[in-house]
Design goal:
Layout lengths: L1 E5 L3 H15 L2 E5 L2 H9 L7 E4 L20 H12 L6 E5 L13 E6 L4 H12 L1
Parallel strand pairs: 1-2, 1-3, 3-4, 4-5
């Protein structure tokens, strides 16, 4: 299993990366920006089984801003690009500290939504569920 984690928050991300590498023994690539994520997905030698996406990231020149975005919706703006770059069976799991889900507008590209903070085990369990 190979996971792509897209998140700029290293404080919350390090424990998750450690858990996935050492407990589940899955491979995980960590992209700290949408531009880095696009580069990793574009690498034809890697096939991801699931993507974890934080929607609240600083502005990134590699993607267009969403209308009304105050500059921290780079992850959300990345969603359409992810769908065109990933295989249809690769689940995109949005995880964010935002409590409201209205901003997703029932986006069909989102397989699941996880609210931070969340335990690494809960994230791994959701990945297992969606990739089984």
């Amino acid at each position: 299993m190979h996971i792509l984690l897209i998140d700029d928050d290293s404080i919350r991300t390090h424990p998750l990366v450690h858990y996935i590498k050492n407990v589940t023994e899955w491979e995980i690539d960590w992209a700290k920006s949408p531009a880095e994520a696009i580069a990793k997905i574009s690498d034809d030698s890697v096939n991801y089984n699931a993507v974890l996406l934080d929607v609240m990231m600083p502005p990134d020149e590699s993607i267009d801003r969403l209308e009304g975005d105050m500059g921290f919706g780079s992850g959300l703006a990345l969603l359409p690009r992810l769908s065109s770059m990933l295989a249809a069976d690769v689940p995109v799991i949005v995880y964010s500290a935002r409590q409201d889900l209205d901003f997703l507008n029932d986006d069909e590209r989102v397989a699941a939504y996880i609210i931070k903070p969340v335990s690494p085990q809960d994230v791994a369990d959701k990945i297992r569920e969606l990739t089984a």
